[in-house]
Amino acid sequence: METQMWNALTDSMKGAYAAGLAEGVVPRPVIMPLVRGRLVGLIWVRPLKSGDDALTGIAQLSNIAAAAGADEVVLAWETQDVATACELPLGGPAPCLNMVHATQDGHVLHQFPYEERVLTRDAEGVASIDPEWGAASAPQPGGELAPPIQAAVDFSFVPMEMDHPNPFGVTVVLMEEDGYKVRLTEA
């Protein structure tokens, strides 16, 4: 992946996290499939129930990448959010925006820890947070990923077997019907 593309995706995710946290919400895990260096789109996980549903929902982000024939994917997620939703032990720094760049040949984990600076609280006690980004960890080739993220990476490169003239279009429709938020690029 070109440095310019990586930097744009990183800046976009940091901006999305800052905007979400300012509203008291941690953005959901997202996958960004790329085909021949072109971004296909951004797909956020559907609303999840804790436990097995969260594990499955996050892993199923791979469907869009597989249907697109992606040769690269980038996934972004928040450490504590995924651990809590999936009922997994906390692994790695928290709070932390994680991004993984993956190809069929492997992956590199990038971590962007932050401190939560509370700006305000609403009447229900929900905090508006301003993330104070710390120093990013060194990129970790083959870094340990949470199980549903690892599954999403692994299955992103398994060719989709679908007897349909437009497997990508069908996959987009089915994922949207399941509640995934799909935003495709013009490319």
State mean pLDDT (0 to 100 scale).
93
Radius of gyration from the alpha-carbon trace, in angstroms? 16 Å
Instruction: Name the shape in a single word.
Output: globular
From the helix content, strand content and strand pairing, which structural class follows? alpha+beta
Distance between the termini: 17 Å
Number of strands: 9
Question: Unreliable stretches, pLDDT < 50, 5 or more residues?
Answer: none
Describe this protein's structure:
With 187 residues, the protein is of the alpha+beta class. It contains 6 helices and 9 strands; from the N terminus they run H-E-E-E-H-H-E-H-E-E-E-E-H-H-E. The protein has helices spanning 3-22, 52-59, 62-68, 79-85, 147-156, 167-177; strands spanning 30-35, 38-39, 41-44, 72-78, 96-103, 106-121, 127-133, 140-141, 181-184. Strands 1, 2, 3, 4, 5, 6, 7, 8 and 9 form a 9-stranded antiparallel beta sheet that branches. A hairpin with a 2-residue loop joins strand 1 and strand 2 (38-39). Helix 3 runs parallel beside helix 5. The protein is globular. The model has no long low-confidence stretch (mean pLDDT 93).
Question: How would you summarize the topology of this molecule?
Answer:
Elements: H1 3-22, E1 30-35, E2 38-39, E3 41-44, H2 52-59, H3 62-68, E4 72-78, H4 79-85, E5 96-103, E6 106-121, E7 127-133, E8 140-141, H5 147-156, H6 167-177, E9 181-184
Antiparallel strand pairs: 1-2, 1-3, 1-4, 3-9, 4-5, 5-6, 6-7, 6-8
